[in-house]
Amino acid sequence: MARLPDPLRDPVVWTVAALAALVAALGPVGADALWLVPLGDRIVHGDLPGSIPYATAPSDGWHDVPAGAQVVFWAAYRAFGGDRGLVLAQAAAAATAFGALACGLRREAGGAAALGVSLVVLAGALPAVAVTNVSLFSLALFPLLLGLLEREARAPSRRIWLAVPLLALWGNLHGAVLAGWALLALYLVLALARRAPARAGAVLAAATLALLAGPELWDTPRYYWGVFGNEAARRRVGLWTPLSTGAFDLLLVAAFALLLALALARARRFHRWEAVAIAGLAAATVDVARNGVWLLLVAAYPAARSLRLGEPRPHRLALAAGAVGLAAVAAVVAGPPDPGSRPLARAAARAGGTVLAEPVLGQQVALAGGRVWVDNPLDAFRRADQRLYVHWFSGDAAGARALEHAELVLVSTASDAGRRAAVDPRLVLLTARDGRALYRIRG
């Protein structure tokens, strides 16, 4: 077999990374992003939040595990012009994720195979790449851990210990660290334990303890219990939506089917731990569609190994990488569209009362110095308040009592909550623009 080029200098790696960065730079800011900024501001000023300072609903006793993510989001927001800074972080995470993927695939397959499989994963994972959210940390770190495990599967070494600090860092940033821990455990139990059982056991124990290496220490499991048991997860809405027949979900299924078909063409190219991980992640994706990005990343390796393709022309790829990279920079500089309505959020904040607002809009109110009743992180609040808020923004009649907790209502006119607000006699329209409306609740 011909000697592969250095992946870090390979134009395939840089082209894939640049394409992912461009997709991220062109996308919107999602509903799970802006809330981190005000909490990050509290942390950098010496106060680790034990409640949600911009919300009036009780939230005492909340365990702030992802404090590191909040500091990073605050710094990016402050340093790079607000939302633009968050999109820059998303673009950097996407470039890291797909650069690491292409780099790993390049060690095991030809350049054309690595490029093609990476593009299939990028197409299937469009929402995870294009929408700026706190999950950007997991988007970057999962492929790094996966690449480490794939390299160790080829040639076991002491490098496996790098997984421990990686999980410790990850645990302070985003809850999908649990998916990374599970992937590591599968490799250790199903692969490394047969060759070096003592090392496998020691790494697994250290990696498990690394999940507690954050500001909440032994209270960390209580945080995860709250996240996975919050009302949005129970009702399977928002980020907890199961796999459906929507366009992006069908694209994800098509991408996975293609990768699986390629991998099964040479079934012996599967590692046992990969096969078990793919089966588990497939079930997790059916349950919660956003898990699909992890499924595609793992499936990419056996798919790439099965391909026998030539090498693309490096000079053309280098030119493509440069052009796409410049386009990504231009998109970041231009900045994302307003994800909600900054003018109405500022108006609501100036009014001084508690605001009942949909996600994103409520976070913009908090950034403007106002107060909301409930918003993200939903798991911080009492179960009854979570339930009432989810009913309200879902447009359910059971959410009508949420208006008793606020003086103002801020909604998107096209949403379920917005359509109900438009015919609610208790609400007086104050102003509307760009598809959003601000109401005053009659006294």
Report the average pLDDT across residues.
Answer: 95
Low-confidence stretches: none
User: In this structure, how is the largest beta sheet organized?
Assistant: 5 strands, mixed
% residues in beta strands: 5-15%
Radius of gyration: 23 Å
Overall strand count: 5
| H-E string | HHHHHHHHHHHHHHHHHEHEHEHEE
Task: Give the N-terminus to C-terminus distance in angstroms.
Answer: 78 Å
Helix content: 55-70%
Helix-strand category: mainly alpha
Q: What coarse outline follows from CA principal-axis ratios?
A: globular
Tell me the number of structural domains: 2
Number of helices: 20
Provide the spatial order of strands within the biggest beta sheet. 2-1-3-5-4
Task: Describe the protein's architecture and organization.
By secondary structure, the protein is mainly alpha-helical. It has 2 domains: 324 residues, no CATH class; 100 residues. 59% of the residues lie in helices and 5% in strands. The model has no long low-confidence stretch (mean pLDDT 95).
